[in-house]
Design brief:
The complex is a heterodimer of chains A (392) and B (351).
Chain A lengths: L6 H19 L15 H13 L18 H13 L8 H14 L2 H13 L4 E4 L15 E5 L2 E9 L9 E7 L10 E7 L5 E6 L8 E12 L3 E2 L5 H11 L4 H23 L5 H26 L8 H4 L1 H20 L15 H12 L6 H12 L11
Parallel strand pairs in A: 1-4
Antiparallel strand pairs in A: 2-3, 3-7, 4-5, 5-8, 6-7
Helix pairs in contact in A: 1-3, 3-7, 4-5, 4-6, 7-8, 7-10, 8-10, 10-11
Chain B lengths: L6 H17 L2 H8 L6 H11 L17 H13 L6 H14 L2 H13 L4 E6 L3 E3 L2 E10 L6 E6 L2 E6 L5 E5 L9 E10 L1 E2 L3 H37 L1 E2 L2 E2 L4 H29 L5 H27 L10 H13 L4 H13 L4
Parallel strand pairs in B: 1-4
Antiparallel strand pairs in B: 2-3, 3-7, 4-5, 5-8, 6-7, 9-10
Helix pairs in contact in B: 1-4, 4-7, 4-8, 5-6, 5-7, 7-8, 7-9, 7-10, 8-9, 9-10, 9-11
The chains are: A alpha+beta (392), B alpha+beta (351).
């Protein structure tokens, strides 16, 4: 058990930091420090391509597909330096973190050659089509239908909460391809191009006034027969494999974003005197402890090579970070006081901390609500009886 | 960077877990509770058979030459059984002696401590006075103080070694809520006391060993409280269902697991940070002690609640966990104190 990095790894850290900071001080100065998912989308697509040009786009992937075959420690270092340099989040994070690894794990050689260069190169931006209006927590109740017709998959139905669909090029869609099937059986995982007459994307305005999420409607939307990842009917297996990638190294980059938010709260507390309040001090200490434990939990999870047993750190990670960040949002408002309830300008747009307060209410919902997480932890982690279904 | 156990560490963990599970039974612990809170036979076999009583003491001083990670593995396993052992005082004093004692002090005490022939405890006072080689003052809340042969006493940044049988030493044992670690008041009236040679090193070692030991014990205790409650949830049937099938019940167990996983990260982060002399060590120790103590208390309290009436009886072990958890919360700095140290680090001292 060792926490420190080797001299070679520290040298790699220096290389990452130099390149990233150089970019943020130079050609990409205009996107430095952006914290929302959608601002300056076109410039951020150019940034994806710059990352690719210098082979920083997906360093954990094999070299053959644009990566560097980087070690775990190197990926951890890059994720940390990325956020430390004030680089905004990846507009193609779904492509890089989810679609790409899924294709690498489940795709054919032809599919790898077809999709991976565009994802790695920052020219194919992906979004995710999982949830539906009636398949949220109960994800396996998917109703969107796919059928094979003259060498093409034809898809009808509706997806919701498709974040960044309005700036994406492709979407992966879990569809029910077996007529009359129920639950996780009879589903298939399809890759579809968004720019076609059968697909319509409508923004959903959220409680913070922003619109990062969308509804995506499919009306005889089409993709080629070989755009299916895995076999027909294997969609659930592929989708669950994909969700496991969600807990990868990118979580450490996400944590650096949390670090920036906590630092902003600390700076505000020192500036406005809240730092003298013993109760606020206790809560800031708790937030600091929680963030550190998140980091070491993620490192435990990433260092774990024994996949024969349930990994408790991985299983509990979602509820841990989501609850921590929701509490951080409340702490931010308590530190700001009433000033936090007044917007800076005339429009309904919020600075980092009030926006954190509003947006973090989504954290305990998307990707499995806290209540669903507790069911999963109790059932998979502790072996307790499963929830009975009401429709069987 | 590799944040998981080496093969050797995993082996130590298996060994100590099996040893305490087999030997530190509820029956033996309960017998020890009315005999000064120490199962002396168990401590003797721990010291002589396992060879881990000096797990983090350098080999040149007769120890195993390992570190805080391995000490944590031992304390975690002992904590899982709420074992009635003088491990806390032993770890604190032996580590402090190894770090800051004179060769003569090490010669005189370390061998006896590691073999189990002598027991040690540590205490603290802010109003003791020292003159002419003699120390006077009152040291409160000394864990297992009445059983100690040697005391390491701290007064305003200085560390003193006192033979518990020396003239001028009075030790009053108290009936203590946690009977597996009774507290004592040590009063010195011009008792012979030897200073250590390096107070700073001894002080740091004393603190690190104590906080790691308590945090790891708390982790083990919390996990055991969860495991035992999960077993009960699967066996007890009400309304025609296993009670563990009710969401109100299983969600509390899930919350316990979420906290315990963080506590595990905390213990081994802190242990590694001390072993690697990381700049984060102080922060990690404060985080681990406060977080693990609170986690253990939450889990032990849930253990009683989720067992219903049987959990409130003397016969059931839940109260052993509950009382141990409460005592860990206040030993060696309560949670608010540790968190204020972290706040001072993050925000600066309060005005």
């Amino acid at each position: 058990m060792k926490l420190g990095f080797s001299a070679a790894e520290e040298a790699f850290r220096g290389e990452c930091a130099e390149w990233l900071q150089g970019q943020m001080a130079g050609e990409f100065k205009d996107i430095k420090g952006i914290t929302t998912l959608t601002a300056k989308a076109e410039r951020r697509k150019e940034w994806e391509q710059r990352l690719a040009a210098d082979r920083w786009s997906c360093i954990g992937w094999p070299e053959q597909w644009g990566g560097r075959g980087a070690t775990l420690a190197e990926q951890v270092i890059f994720a940390e330096e990325y956020a430390r340099a004030g680089v905004p989040g990846r507009v193609n994070h779904i492509g890089i973190e989810l679609a790409g690894p899924t294709i690498l794990a489940f795709g054919t050689e032809e599919q790898k050659a077809r999709f991976l260069p565009g994802i790695a190169g920052g020219t194919t931006i992906f979004c995710q089509g999982f949830s539906e209006p009636n398949a949220g927590s109960d994800l396996a109740s998917i109703r969107t239908k796919g059928r094979l017709e003259q060498g093409e998959w034809v898809v009808n139905g509706q997806k919701i909460w498709t974040s960044l669909a309005h700036i994406s090029d492709w979407i992966f869609v879990v569809t029910r391809t077996e007529e009359g099937s129920k639950g996780p059986k009879g589903l298939s995982f399809l890759m579809m191009e968004l720019d076609q007459p059968g697909i319509e994307v409508r923004g959903i305005t959220q409680i913070n006034g922003d619109a990062e999420f969308n509804e995506t409607f499919f009306t005889d939307a089409r993709c080629s027969e070989d755009s299916i990842i895995g076999a027909p009917g294997d969609g659930w297996k592929v989708a669950m494999g994909l969700l496991a990638f969600e807990r990868g190294v990118s979580t450490l980059g996400q944590q650096m974003g949390f670090r920036n938010e906590l630092d902003a709260i600390v700076a505000e507390a020192r500036a406005n005197g809240a730092a003298r309040d013993p109760l606020i001090r206790q809560r800031i200490a708790r937030a600091e402890i929680g963030l550190r434990l998140m980091r070491y939990g993620a490192l435990r999870m990433l260092s774990n090579t024994d996949h024969s047993k349930i990994d408790g750190a991985a299983l509990t990670y979602k509820i841990q970070w989501a609850t921590w960040r929701r509490d951080l949002g409340e702490l931010a408002m308590d530190v700001l006081g009433q000033a936090g309830e007044i917007a800076e300008g005339d429009s309904y747009e919020w600075g980092m901390l009030p926006n954190l307060f509003l947006f973090s209410r989504a954290d305990t919902i998307y990707g499995g609500t806290n209540q669903i997480q507790r069911n999963l932890i109790a059932e998979r982690g502790l072996g307790l009886p499963r929830e009975p279904r009401g429709d069987q | 960077m590799h944040f998981s156990f080496t093969d050797e560490q995993a082996m130590i963990a298996d060994t100590v877990r099996a040893f305490f599970a087999e030997n530190a039974t509820s029956e033996r612990t309960r017998r020890a509770m009315v005999e000064g809170g120490i199962d002396r036979d168990l401590w003797g076999s721990f010291c002589t058979e396992l060879g881990l009583s000096g797990v983090a003491i350098p080999e040149s001083l007769g120890g195993a030459g390992l570190g805080m990670v391995e000490l944590a593995l031992v304390a975690e396993a002992a904590g899982a059984q709420v074992a009635a052992l003088p491990l806390l005082g032993h770890a604190r004093v032996s580590q402090a002696l190894a770090a800051g004692g004179t060769p003569e002090q090490q010669e005189r005490w370390l061998g006896a401590l590691l073999s189990g022939e002598a027991l040690a405890s540590a205490g603290w006072s802010h109003d003791a006075s020292f003159a002419d080689g003699r120390l006077s003052g009152t040291f409160n809340f000394v864990p297992h103080g009445a059983s100690a042969d040697v005391l390491l006493l701290v007064t305003e940044g200085r560390c003193w070694l006192v033979d518990a049988k020396a003239a001028g030493v009075t030790i009053k044992a108290h009936t203590t809520m946690d009977q597996t670690r009774p507290l004592a008041t040590v009063t010195l009236d011009r008792a012979a006391a030897e200073p250590l040679v390096d107070d700073g090193a001894a002080f740091d070692a004393l603190h690190a060993a104590g906080w790691i030991c308590l945090a790891a014990e708390a982790l083990g205790g919390a996990q055991a409280a969860l495991d035992r409650t999960v077993a009960y949830a699967q066996e007890r049937v009400q309304f025609g269902r296993q009670i563990g099938s009710f969401q109100a019940y299983k969600h509390r167990l899930a919350d316990m697991m979420v906290a315990i996983e963080q506590a595990r990260s905390a213990v081994y982060w802190a242990a590694c940070a001390v072993d690697e002399q990381s700049g984060e060590a102080a922060l990690a120790l404060h985080a681990a002690k406060s977080f693990c103590a609170d986690t253990f208390f939450m889990c032990a309290a849930n253990m009683i609640q989720l067992h219903g009436g049987i959990g409130f009886t003397w016969e059931h072990d839940a109260h052993l966990f509950f009382k141990r958890a409460r005592s860990i919360q206040t030993l060696l700095g309560d949670g608010n104190w540790h968190r204020e140290r972290i706040a001072a680090n993050v925000l600066g001292e309060a005005a």
